[in-house]
Design brief:
- The complex is a heterodimer.
- Chain A is 46% helix and 12% strand.
- Chain A is α/β, with parallel strands linked by helices.
- Chain A has a four-stranded parallel sheet with strand order 4-3-5-6. A four-stranded parallel sheet of chain A has the order 10-9-11-12. A two-stranded antiparallel ribbon of chain A has the order 1-2.
- In chain A, β5 (155-161), α8 and β6 form a beta-alpha-beta unit.
- In chain A, α9 crosses α14 (361-370).
- The longest helix of chain A is centred in the middle third of the chain and has 27 residues, at 236-262.
- The N and C termini of chain A lie far apart (47 Å).
- By secondary structure, chain B is α/β, with parallel strands linked by helices.
- Chain B folds into two domains: 3-125, Rossmann fold; 146-325, 3-Layer(aba) Sandwich (Rossmann fold).
- Chain B is 47% helix and 14% strand.
- Chain B has helices spanning 13-18, 45-56, 69-81, 98-117, 125-144, 151-164, 195-203, 226-231, 233-244, 254-266, 281-293, 312-325; strands at 3-6, 22-25, 60-65, 86-89, 181-187, 206-213, 271-277, 298-303.
- The termini of chain B are far apart.
- Classes of the chains: A alpha/beta, B alpha/beta.
Chain lengths: 468, 326
């Protein structure tokens, strides 16, 4: 069925769903109307605008049924591994076992947004002494306390060291509430000295070989722990197979990102792209289905580009977005203001880079873990953003502050400084709380000002390095 | 002699001194103006003032550590905006594995290389051993002075020790505090103007018998094992620093609570002043946990680092706390 790309409301999605069904829509087991998720309390869905394709419907349904999959996995005697903070590495190991499912309890940070604060998770976090001065990931504590949003994992693994203090502190609080945690160390990635053996990591950062060896030894500990909990042995063949599968996800995402960010007409809106990217970190609890969901999206995007169809005006301003937003609606808002997303760094770029397949698998995973943009200096992270600005032709950068997050106090200054040193493009910082309704006019004004600033500039000034 | 400026208790003063440089562990202060190189919303005042203080210092070397995320990122600010040579030392958060302990040892060696590049000289074992024994002795003297000094004087003594080294320790004459209610102050490191909290508490009738802030007694390592000193100096240095200083950032941080329990019981503490710097997540998260864990009253004092005298609200809270305990 050939449908014109359009952003539609949840209400309109029901009509669209009927049309697609009549046209022979393929539906996976978790398929159905999007509006049914509102009955679960996901009230924010009523206020979002969605891509109207069958591929987007599948993506949303896949995302919003994860809890069912986790419960189902438990019913089928699979072990649930709660991986925390590393964003992308440990799940690749966990999915290499046949009977373990990994997910990030950190993902609870979107519950206050999706349920419009009705779940009471932030109030529970308050009562545990973790107030609004912490990042919204504190909702995770409430989710553990209520046991209402995901099954309590059989095993919790958390990376600490070069991570944000909010998360480390909240995880320790969780530990104090009686949830044992397997802690592993992520050292601050540093640039190698000239006399040190070095390794170039996926994504381009460099690190001394000794740091790689250290991370590898930490992953070895995790491998042993996972073997014990799963009752299965893990070997290089199984790990390599897991990496190949994870790489399939990353290859699709890489192509999807490139096409979505560089096509003349935007072929996939920001919200759907954000969710697609998020699938890379733990595959929404089903890696095989993630691959199928992404393949559908990629096919849709290719068809739209081929048909020269898409969203927004051709002169929509190309924005590079830094950090994920706590309120999903802001992605819609950016597009309402005349922008489109062309480049992202949502804290997990290392989960998008392909994992090397030509070296021992644990070395490859250690490389991936060490490539975490948040584990190294903010200057390195900013350099990576600069490379992507060139790659995607971004015309402006928007740094989205996460309220209370320890890294946000300083990183905006540094990232902004590095970008301004390299490009003559505007950089704006905004703060996005879980629900932006009260401050929507302020956020809108800043986004509009950014878009207008770019549109008023001579075209030849855009996205050229200052040194060129 | 070139100064090596730092704040973190896991940076070994003996190690720096052995390279012929002057270790200078400072208590950051606010200059009370907006002229600092950094004033950002959401930034811990301790980190902010440390960076701004570096900007005011003449020729020096700075050592940052990864003990907290904001300090880690503060290093980026310094390297990108100041000419001050700076080093970022990786302090592992985990401590129960051999690998973490070795990582700390390797970081000490890496710090040594940096100090040589910055004008220091590789030390002989004799120089290092001599320095370690000297610092050992000074720390012992300081700990013995706890009950002979007021809390403010004790904090100043610790500050002087960190800033000027062991030679200054014996030269101070002080008078003890006569107040009666034994208290502990636990939490984030104190900024210079936060010392006022100590003074006010004692003026109002409390006696701080345990300064368990980072720049208090909790930030001093245990005595070195003299037998082990003869076997492997550096190993003993690393082992003592890494394993005897208990911080809230450790994962898990159960050792901090064990250390607190011993000291609170031993000193018959009747109440705890919990000090935290605004935006310090690591300590803020411990407040409720401490309240749940200990059967003692806990008073939460948040420091905003605005360089004003301790505000009336804080004074009233301390007064009410002491009235309740008396």
């Amino acid at each position: 069925m050939n449908i014109e790309p359009k952003q539609i409301s949840l209400e309109k999605w029901d009509e669209q769903y009927n049309k697609l069904r009549k046209a022979g829509l393929y539906e996976p087991s978790y398929g159905g109307r999007l509006s049914r998720h509102v009955e679960d309390g996901d009230m924010r869905l009523l206020k979002l605008k969605y891509d109207n394709s069958a591929a987007a419907l599948r993506l949303w349904n896949f995302l919003l049924t994860e809890e069912d999959r986790l419960k189902n996995a438990r019913d089928n005697c699979k072990k649930l591994i709660g991986t925390m903070k590393d964003l992308g590495t440990i799940p690749v190991m966990a999915y290499s076992f046949e009977n373990t499912i990994a997910f990030y309890p950190d993902g609870a940070w979107w519950i206050p947004c999706v349920m419009e604060l009705n779940a009471g998770l932030l109030e529970i976090a308050d009562s545990l002494g973790i107030d609004e001065s912490f990042c919204p990931v504190r909702a995770m504590l409430g989710a553990f306390a209520t046991e209402a949003h995901f099954p309590i994992p059989d095993f919790l693994i958390c990376s600490v060291g070069a991570t944000c203090d909010d998360f480390s502190a909240i995880a320790q609080r969780l530990n104090g509430m009686g949830h044992p945690i397997f802690w592993w160390e992520m050292p601050h990635r540093r640039n190698p000295k000239s006399y040190e053996d070095k390794v170039i990591l996926p994504g381009g950062f460099a690190a001394p070989k000794c740091q790689l060896e250290f991370v590898k030894s930490e992953l070895e500990r995790i491998k042993v722990a996972l073997s014990e909990i799963s009752g299965q042995e893990m070997n290089d063949e199984k790990l390599s197979a897991g990496i190949i599968k994870a790489n399939q996800v990353r290859k699709y995402l890489s192509e999807l990102r490139y096409l979505a960010f560089t096509a003349e007409l935007c072929p996939l809106p920001a919200l759907e792209m954000l969710i697609a990217e998020m699938l890379a970190i733990h595959f929404c609890s089903d890696i095989d289905e993630t691959i199928e969901v992404l393949k559908d999206l990629l096919d849709e995007v290719k068809t739209r580009i081929k048909n020269n169809t898409g969203f927004f005006d051709r002169d929509a301003v190309k924005i590079f977005w830094v950090n994920p937003v706590a309120d999903l609606q802001v992605m819609n808002l950016l597009e309402d203001c005349g922008g489109r997303i062309c480049g992202t760094e949502y804290l997990f770029s290392h989960a998008l880079d392909e994992i090397p397949e030509n070296i021992p698998p644990l070395d490859a995973l250690a490389q991936m873990a060490l490539a975490d943009p948040m584990a190294g200096s903010t200057i390195d992270r900013a350099s990576r953003i600069c490379n992507d600005i060139i790659k995607y032709g971004s015309e402006a950068v928007l740094i989205s502050r996460i309220p209370g997050a320890s890294h946000c106090a300083l990183e905006g200054e540094i990232i902004g400084q590095v970008i301004r040193e390299n490009f003559d493009i505007p950089v704006v910082e905004i703060e996005v709380p879980p629900i932006t309704d009260a401050m929507k006019p302020t956020v809108r004004t800043r986004l509009e000002a950014l878009v207008e600033t770019v549109k008023a500039r001579p075209q030849n000034k855009i996205h050229k390095r200052r040194t060129e | 002699m070139k100064k090596v400026i730092y704040t973190c208790p896991y940076v070994s003063a003996e190690w720096i001194a052995a390279y012929g440089l002057k270790p200078c562990r400072i208590v950051p202060y606010s200059n009370g103006t907006n002229s600092g190189i950094i004033r950002t919303e959401g930034l811990c005042p301790y980190v902010r003032d440390f960076i701004n203080n570096l900007n005011e210092k003449e020729e020096c070397i700075a050592v940052f550590t990864t003990l907290c995320d904001q300090m880690r990122r503060g290093f980026d600010i310094v390297t990108s905006r100041l000419d001050t040579p700076a080093f970022l030392m990786n302090i592992p958060s985990t401590w129960q594995t051999i690998a973490s302990q070795k990582l700390y040892l390797d970081e000490l060696k890496r710090l040594g290389n940096f100090l040589v590049q910055s004008g220091g000289k590789t030390p002989s074992d004799e120089t290092l051993a001599e320095g370690m024994l000297k610092y050992n002795k000074a720390r012992k003297s300081i700990l013995e002075m706890n009950d002979k000094l007021s809390a403010l004087q004790y904090a100043q003594l610790l500050e002087q020790f960190g800033k000027n080294g062991p030679d200054e320790v014996g030269r101070m004459g002080f008078s003890p505090c006569c107040s009666s209610i034994p208290l502990a102050i636990v939490g984030s490191p104190l900024l210079k103007h936060d010392f006022e909290i100590l003074e006010i508490t004692e003026l109002l009738g409390g006696r701080i018998v345990l300064n368990a802030t980072e720049n208090g007694e909790r930030g001093l390592c245990s005595p070195f094992n003299k037998r082990k000193l003869k076997e492997n100096l550096l190993m003993e240095l690393a082992d003592t620093y890494f394993n005897s200083i208990h911080d809230a950032s450790r994962r898990p941080n159960s050792e901090l609570y064990k250390w607190l329990k011993i000291n609170l019981v031993e000193r018959e503490v009747k109440g705890i002043i919990f000090h935290r710097n605004i935006w310090c997540d690591i300590w803020h998260a411990e407040l409720q946990r401490l309240k749940d864990w200990i059967d003692l009253p806990v008073l939460d004092i948040e420091s905003t680092g605005d360089n004003q005298s301790t505000n009336q609200n804080t004074i009233n809270r301390i007064r009410a706390f002491l009235e309740m305990l008396s």
